[in-house]
Amino acid sequence: MQFVATTRAQQGTGASRRLRYTGKTPGIVYGAGQDTQAIELDHNNLFHALQKEEFHSSILDMELDGKVTKVVLRDVQYHPFKPMVLHVDFQRVDENTKVESKVALTYEGAEQSPAVKDENCTVTPLVQELSIISVPTKRPEVIKVDLSGLTSKSNLTLRHLVKLPAGVKAVVRGSNKNPALVSIKLPEVAVDAGAAAAPAAAPAKKGKK
Length: 209
Description:
The protein has helices at residues 13-21, 43-49, 53-57, 114-117, 158-161, 193-197, and strands at residues 2-7, 24-31, 34-42, 60-64, 67-78, 85-92, 99-108, 122-125, 129-134, 142-146, 169-171, 182-185. By secondary structure, the protein is of the alpha+beta class. The longest helix has 9 residues, at 13-21.
């Protein structure tokens, strides 16, 4: 995903305020062994880009003064009640910089698995994307999850279902470091309607003494 920025000449609170009045958003770009650089972006274009998950989770191509640099979004400051972006930070990345990003999971082979074909189970994906850390050249576009060998007794967690490419590490936050990626629902057992409708036997009456 590509966006356009230009070098920001004036800095400071007053300069940033004046910049926002003209429909621009101030920001900075840093990292990759270079000095921090002040930049400005068209506010409306930036605001719409921020509505897309890809802008937050992918390595971006920033066209700065005619030169394209790969960056990742690091911080966004919004106005407390107006739909306005006040400031944005980007980090430069190069071929040796490991960055965290999100990659979509694609599930394949469920219909051909023993769980579905032989056991009539219903397989439902629970996780649609995975956070990873890698250098840009190792980042996969998608991560395929092969479900063709799935059975009702299979282990359904991340470590058992996902084989990550070399140089790629999964990032899982929270207490559960090995979350389930899919759920399996066994077929419902049919109930005999006649047996279900049969009245319960009345208790025997006690005779009089």
